[in-house]
Amino acid sequence: MQNHTPILPETAKENSDSYRYPHRMVIVYTLFLLMGASIIAWVSLQNRYNREDDESLDYFKEVSSKNLSGRDPHLDKNSETKTNLKEKSLGVVSLYYPWFEIPLPPGEHKQVFQNHCLVCHSPQLVFNQPPHLKSEVWKGVVHKMVANYGANISALEEEQIVTYLLALQLFRDYQAKNVP
Amino acid sequence: MQAKRIDRRHWLRQSFTVGLRSSLLYSGISLSALGCKRDRQRQENGPVMLDNEPVLRFPDKVPMRVVNDRPPCLETPWRYYRDDFTPNEAFYVRWHLQSIPTRIDSANWRLKIGGHVQKSLELSLADLRQFEVVQLAAVNQCSGNSRSLFGPRVTGAQWGNGAMGNAMWAGVPLKTLLDKAGIRAGAIDVSFDGLDQGPLASVPDFVKSLPLDIARRPEVLVAYEMNGAPLPILNGFPVRLVVPGYYATYWIKSLSQIIVHEQTYTGYWMTKAYLIPATNNANENPDRLSKSMIPIHQMNVRSFFTMPEELQQVRKNQLVKLAGIAFDGGSGIAKVEISADRGKSWQQTELGKNHGNYSFRRWSALWQNSEEFTKLLENNKATWLVKATNNKGEEQPMESIWNRGGYMRNGVESWSVEVVG
To answer: Rounded to two decimals, what is the model's pTM?
Structure first.
């Protein structure tokens, strides 16, 4: 009654698998873990391979500052493209180039800017204009887009865009101060 | 399986682009200015920023400063000017309109020549190669090179000094093609159009023109080779116009149509854009803008330092080798002088190999510190000036010019090193 679990005789105890081979389960678990780890490693290596494999990503590849002071280590790869180009000089030459997706800082009339100023060129062209431009200068730029290039922007929207552009200066100032 | 793979790639690309997006925050304005630490970490995986500007590698190019990504405007890294010829991979890129050519089938490509001619022509690349080839070294410099250095600053593509390059161009003289088409009496102007287009119909197509007498100059080429290789597509594959001595705005890339006119061509990019004040060296006063404006044309004389590295350390008694480049609009470089005392006295430099009047001309000089010079050191910084004079006797102004368009900057350049020990 008191002893539900039968007390195994010494010999039986010794014969039980887990008693005789206490490491076996550890080994099995370890094997499981190893398998898991290698699957993860394989998957991530695959991903990595895919990245390098993917030509379109090639152009986004980071450049270390070291590379900027010596010959570009990617040039070897480049010369390959060059020979291709030569062979292709009577074939098809194509270009895939990166576009930036620059999130627009929040601000009044951001939506108006977004609707009208990303149509013909990157906001990069707008954002790297000289700092602290006077509002007349921005007014002139925005109106030039309408008068010279046919941007479909109403007079009210022109004003709203100028407001947004002037507010952007605050971000630039903040960034200049705070981003190393 | 295949489909899955593609999906995953697609997803990877997307997530990578998202990473890029956040890293590119740094290209101008940054949400991370709000103090988002994650963005800062992500930046480490993104492109390297120089002076807060993205440096990226475009197809067939070395990593270059991205003045604009769409359409691409890329600046040549300074060290490439240590060669007399700027490698194609590092040659600056400047497009105006968003729809740049991204796929060119050279077999079907044709150059059309028409207008006021006896016989319109449609020439294939193979046809162009039938004509006798002319080779010529010439500097291609953007009208707005150095615009970001103007004071007061002006709007436009914000170039440093790297919107220029020297290449060995090979192609057919334009004159040969015009003669083949047969220019009719009364023709005075020739316009050039490339494959690029405005994103909307309302954006004027990028077309430039030259007076017939300029277009017929023997050195004006329709070039299909640049430094011995086909032109990179970003530099105007399959052919571009080469107008030695003239600013690059006339060197139409991916040239596709040439039209001979009886009247002066008056398109937007000739009469509204790329205008300079009709004054001496295109100079004007910000407070009193010139009333008379003319299309930009011939380059003025310039020179630069390329050696040693700027702000490099040199020993007090070290013999320093200074070197650089000089060029002008085609008369050729007569002399290049340097000054160690801010222009009081000038020392002549030695000129390098002459590749022709339109090319970069290398200059070099040896310089040793002197007692007087030590007195001139400011914070241990030694500063030199460089000034070129062309064969017409024109020299660079000590003070840079200014004009509203940010064109033709050519003032004397200065260069500093740190003197130690």
So the answer is: 0.80
